[in-house]
Write a structure and sequence with these properties.
The chain is α+β, with helices and mostly antiparallel strands. Helix content is about 15%, strand content about 20%. A hairpin with a 6-residue loop joins strand 9 and strand 10 (about 165-170). The two termini are about 25 Å apart.
């Protein structure tokens, strides 16, 4: 059965990836004062849930448009973003699509039910494994159009500070960066209109992360 993620981090020793993840979340909180998007919050399943790798159930009812939450599932950092109408419209912008390496998600980096223009089974919500497909770092959220720390034409997305890889708000990789593939989409489904279950497919689907090109 899916477990509900609890707010807050536990006092156990962190791995290097978890440290980087915490740094990413901290960056989001610090940067929120200058950004128009709400503060990035963090959820963390209990230690026994993390060890078991069971599905995690997330209540989406309190997540506002433009807000992102983050947590671990099977030791992997997960980003869940509620995209704004502006962000959804930008995903279809021909100018953006021309800048992406795999705009149609042709490479197997997601389940079939997320092989679409928004890389999601519910367009409003993005669900990604936040591991850069170059060398496994955790990308920083840069959600604002024209973010002053990015180029003037920045459409909103994610930036990996390790080697400069960039992704849009569907986790699609830009051309000409070190990362070769889009960010992976984990198995997920919606138990109700406001309950997301990460780590479990919709009924009748057998997608497995072992089938993707690269994690």
């Amino acid at each position: 059965m899916p477990e509900q993620a609890e707010v807050g981090f536990h006092g156990e020793q962190s791995t290097r990836r978890e440290f980087l993840f915490l740094a990413t979340v901290a960056f989001g909180v610090v940067g929120a004062t200058a950004a128009s998007w709400p503060i990035i919050t963090s959820l963390e399943p209990s230690a026994d849930v993390r060890a078991a790798g069971v599905p995690v159930s997330i209540d989406l009812s309190q997540i506002q448009p433009g807000q992102q939450i983050s947590f671990f599932w099977q030791g992997k950092p997960i980003f869940v973003l509620r995209r704004t109408e502006q962000a959804l419209a930008e995903l279809k912008n021909p100018g953006l699509l021309a800048r992406l390496g795999d705009p149609d998600s042709a490479v197997n980096q997601q389940p079939g039910y997320a092989r679409n223009w928004c890389r999601s089974s519910k367009p409003e919500f993005m669900v990604l494994i936040a591991i850069c497909t170059h060398l496994g770092c955790i990308p920083l959220p840069k959600p604002d159009l024209g973010d002053p720390t990015m180029e003037a034409s920045w459409p909103g997305g994610y930036f990996c500070p390790c080697h400069g890889s960039k992704y849009d708000l569907a986790g699609r990789v830009f051309r000409g960066v070190p990362a070769p593939y889009n960010l992976p989409v984990p198995p997920h489904h919606y138990a109700t209109d406001t309950t997301l279950v990460v780590g479990e497919n919709p009924a009748g689907d057998d997608f497995s992360l072992s089938s993707i090109e690269q994690l």
